[in-house]
Here is the input.
Amino acid sequence: MPTLQETAARRSTVARSALRPRRIRKRASWWQPVAAFAVFVGLWYAVAAYYDQTVELPYLVPYPHLVLQAIVHDTRPDGVPTGFNAELWAALGRTTVVSLVGLAAAIVLGVLWATVMAQAKGLEKALYPYAVVLQCVPILALVPLIGALFGYASLSRVIVTVMIALFPMVSNTLFGLQSVDRAQRELFELQGAGRLTRLRKLQIPAALPSIFVGLRTSAGLSVIGAIVGDQFFQRGDPGLGVLIQVTASRLMGPELYATIIIASLYGIAVFLAFGLIGRLAVGRWFDFS
Amino acid sequence: MSTLTTAEPAVRSTLLDFRDVDLVFPDGTAALGGVDLTVDRGEFVSIVGPSGCGKSTLLRIASGLESASGGAADVSASRIGYVFQDATLLPWRSVQGNVELLAELHRAGKADRAAKAAAAIGLVGLTGFEKHLPKQLSGGMKMRVSLARSLTLDPELFLFDEPFGALDEITRERLNDELLRLFAEQRFAGLFVTHSVSEAVYLSTKVVVMSGRPGSIVARFDVPFPLPRDPDIRFTPEFAALVGDVSHALREGHR
Here is the structure.
């Protein structure tokens, strides 16, 4: 019969091997995405050539290299300086500020709102309908009113962003706070733990995975909110939304496409970044996909 | 609390005393009807009975999670351990963190907490697993962590709500042995709810049979086998006979 020490030693070896991360994942093959992208660019060239040669409206679908040029160079192919490139990065910076400020406000408001609702069924019944209303009312219908009330500059842009990004924070946080099962709640109750202790040591940690899922969705929405707000409130410093409208109205095809692509890349980056933050925060104990 | 215990500490003291306990839920369902039950220090009492006979409800009243609607339910234990059906571990905490939880909720100091946890983890044979997360453990190991967590309270009265019901037979038997060893060492008062008659007989000094509904106790058996017990007593004719008697009473009550 093994001694206790031997058993313990064997157990901890088993334990260590269980801890080792599994790397059985198939080797990622790189060529399929590259091939798909090449096909996409090829198609784009074909359509651009069609619009250039046959339809003769080249600004509707500009050639990819012209779009790339608009993003990376400050001159046209013929060497004429446009000044567009500097404007694009400045606009991206302003949209970034608006979306992140709006997102931060949405996080704070959403988590507070959900936490209050999680305290009592009555509070949830009283307050949840407003979250649903917020989600259902077409924000665009409120935009003129927001402009009239709060002006047509940054504040209104942030308010629109918050309104668009808030709901996923509220609903996901509430869902997470309520996901604690009864036995776990009773475990705390049996030790005489108060509401605040329960919230801090049980409900909020348990809610983190769904809070991060909400955060990722809200982050994506905050980019949309910032751009939509920008398009409506033309005053103040222009962001990507204004740039899209201006380049579209002036038939600046490559610049319009460049702006759209940068806006999309920003949206993707925000989504990925917050996904990564979520994985770093709770991935240790929760399969955060 | 009671003057009797302070005057005569050697005398068996009653930690749980239920007299004619009734429980009627607000919807009118009668869960318990006239339950009489005592658990003394050094006794391990198992409750067997069909599903829904109110076995778990009895534990919930004993722990204070539920209150009786009639009769007297006196619990004079100051430290009560409660082991749930599921391990109810917090998935974001390591084994160590989970075991420390209850002391933490009682605002124990860091060193105190760590010492208690280390001792309890040692008692359930999980030394070396302190840094593991629950998702890295098997069902049986999770249950051990749950046991260790309750052990940090140094409970006078230990309540078990079908803790091994979801485990496979081998794991269950091994945990039975460990629980029996813990009981032989620590001599808390135990109240153990289970579906398994042989588990009840093997672990207990006393087995009570409940029938539903409303739940009431229909038979009581003293288990004569001395402690500590050899796992092989499960294969003796005396053990089999007692299991047979309890099973018979269970069927009678269920009719």
Summary: The first strand of chain B starts at residue 14 and ends at 24.
